[in-house]
Recover the amino acids of this structure.
């Protein structure tokens, strides 16, 4: 597991059974979930990376991408390896919890740093990291799995940098805290920023933890989310299927988790 600073979301409610400020109203939880409701787009989804953890679905819209930024690496980089090998996209990886990149490729650059707002030398902000790497002036891909630090990272991300990411693939953590009256406003604000310029085009629960149910609403604690910038999307009326035919369980030894109906 990667190690990152504890965010405000994590501090508010670290356990499924603890809801700071009491249980949030059902209508408020439903409204937050609605912010991440996926849409159908004309561009087909493809799978990049391995068949288990580390493989993700994203739109087949990679032409002209200047670089991929991947905060949170651990020991899996099949996603970045395929982008570098098959699409010739430079990939920048960062993670202070490991000493080196799990993949060696000329287009992969690794930094032993954490991405976040902490002022210590071990940390660098996503905004600064993108600027320092001088990854062209065009579109980027963001693949982020930082064990809950995503809330802090996006809180300090400018609209200008956010809009550079044509595609965002993010694993969200601690989503059971949606049921906490204290945490819900922070999570909903994060959802609004995440979808300000992007449509959600795919959801897939990580099957390492079961869904948490309160008041008839089920929430996967860990959820893989794919977003595509709105100006690149042509919406369709096609019915979405969950799981997608390209989805695979994160933990192969366990059954995959069906996306609860309230998220569709």
């Amino acid at each position: 597991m990667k190690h990152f600073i504890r965010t405000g979301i994590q501090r508010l409610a670290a356990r499924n059974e603890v809801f700071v400020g009491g249980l949030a109203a059902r209508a408020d939880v439903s409204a937050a979930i609605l912010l991440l409701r996926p849409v159908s787009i004309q561009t087909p989804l493809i799978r990049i990376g391995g068949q288990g953890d580390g493989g993700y679905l994203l739109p087949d819209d990679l032409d002209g991408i200047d670089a991929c930024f991947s905060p949170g690496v651990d020991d899996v980089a099949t996603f970045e390896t395929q982008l570098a090998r098959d699409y010739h996209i430079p990939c920048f990886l960062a993670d202070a919890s490991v000493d080196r990149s799990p993949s060696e490729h000329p287009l992969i650059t690794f930094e032993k740093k954490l991405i976040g707002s902490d002022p210590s030398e071990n940390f660098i902000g996503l905004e600064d990291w993108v600027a320092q790497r001088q990854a062209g002036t065009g579109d980027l891909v963001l693949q982020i799995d930082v064990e809950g630090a995503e809330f802090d990272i996006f809180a300090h991300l400018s609209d200008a940098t956010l809009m550079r990411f044509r595609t965002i693939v993010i694993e969200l953590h601690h989503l059971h805290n949606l049921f906490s009256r204290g945490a819900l406003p922070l999570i909903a604000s994060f959802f609004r920023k995440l979808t300000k310029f992007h449509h959600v085009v795919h959801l897939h629960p990580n099957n390492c933890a079961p869904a948490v149910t309160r008041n008839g609403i089920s929430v996967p604690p860990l959820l893989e989310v794919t977003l595509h910038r709105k100006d690149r999307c042509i919406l369709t009326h096609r019915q979405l299927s969950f799981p997608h035919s390209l989805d695979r369980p994160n933990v192969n030894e366990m059954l995959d988790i069906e996306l609860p109906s309230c998220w569709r």
Notes: The first strand starts at residue 45 and ends at 48. Residues 1-17 have pLDDT under 50 and may be disordered. The longest helix spans residues 184-194.
